[in-house]
Each structure stands twice: as structure tokens, then as C-alpha cells.
Structure prediction request, 245 residues.
Amino acid sequence: MRPFLLIATRPEDEAARGEYEAMLRFTGLAADRVLYSQLDRAPLPQVDLDDLSGIIVGGSPYSTSDPDDRKPADQRRAEAELDELLDRVVPADFPFFGACYGVGTLGVHQGAVVDRTYPEPVSAITVTLTDEGLRDPLIRASGVPESFQAFVGHKEAVRTLSDDAVLLATGEAAPVQMFRVGENMYATQFHPELDVAGIVQRIHIYRENGYFDPATMDELIETVSAARIGDVHTLLRAFVTRYAR
Prediction:
């Protein structure tokens, strides 16, 4: 099987390691079936799309809507390289799955408006599939129900989708929770790789990053620990199963 390229942009070692392990667990991929690029630390390796099964982009503390002069150098480089990669991925309609940060990268590349109109605090939300989502082959293969719980936590989101995007799932606070471009490129605002242990780890790591009031951390952990998260993880396994070659 050709490997999947997993791209991370998490400068924090513990967060990067946790995301990597979660992606392997919920995709079902063995480590030797993954090319792992920590794009915040080193340039993207030269990749030929013909040598890959697909691309998965994880979340990030980066915000694509921040002014360029406020972005650190590693973020500006990472975003430029992701943009160049998408210049090849989109015309080829190559299998792509972006979780959280993937909404910003794929969305911005295609002309979506991504800003701070629809932030969501760290929480478990209800995601509801649209009619297009109910018909989408990847979602159907995943077996997720029409409404399901998922973890979120973001400062920016899609305000207006690009004309070529298909809205697949929505939420009450942030209306764009999942979309598709072409037939094979997907992005979610929610985190399909996060279970309770994963979100609790990130709450600790990002306590001072502005996602929530640090004084409420213990209460927040108690709240998310009661969430019933389950169905959402099958999206990652369905993506790998559908596109492995």
C-alpha cells in the first residue's frame, strides 16, 4: 500500500506526539504506512502524489486569519508550503482530509472567508449532517448518524464557503463544520481524532493560549469528560479505507 502523508503543525512536543498517536489509532494505519511531516519544524519533503494514497492534515494553534506581520516565521513558511501543495492537490482532486486547521488551509486556498466570526470554545458540540452530507459516499461509509457529538475548540472558522465547496455538516455556533471540494477533498472544523483523553491533554497543553479562561480549567475538564464521543472517529478510518491503494 502506498503511504499516507500526515502533516502536523503543532510546535508543542506533547501535543504533536498525542495527535500523531491518535491519528494512527483512529485511521488504523501502522507507522510504516505514514510519511510524517512536522511542517512547523522542517520544510515539507519532496512528495510525488502518485506515490501516496492520500494526505491528512491535523489541527494547529496557528490561525490562518491572523495578519501576516503577527505570524511567526515558521507559520508563514508552513502556510506557503501547504498552499503550494494544494496547488497540486486540488487540480488532481487528490484525496485530502484536513481536521480543524485543514478547514483554514483548504478553505482559504479555494477562496473561502475564514475569520473570527464563529469561534467555538473548547467543548463537545452536536454536528448535524446536511442533505449533501447524508448522500456523501465517505460519510455514508463511515456510518456516522445524522447528528453526532464531536470536540471543537477554535478561534477562527469559515464564514463563507467558496463557490466550489459542498457543505456536508453544520453546527449551531459555527455553521460550517465539514465541507468537500471536488469528489475527494474534505475538511472538518471539529476534531475527528479527539477522544476524551485527547481533549483533556490539549486542555492542559493550551491552557494559556486563549481558547478558554485558565481559571476554569478543572471545571472544563469535568464537562468534556462527560461527553459521549464515539461515532466521529470512524470518519478517519473510512477515509483511509476508501483511498488506500
Q: What stands out?
A: The first helix runs from residue 13 to 27. The first strand starts at residue 4 and ends at 8. The helical segments are 13-27, 73-92, 101-110, 131-135, 137-142, 196-205, 217-225, 234-243.
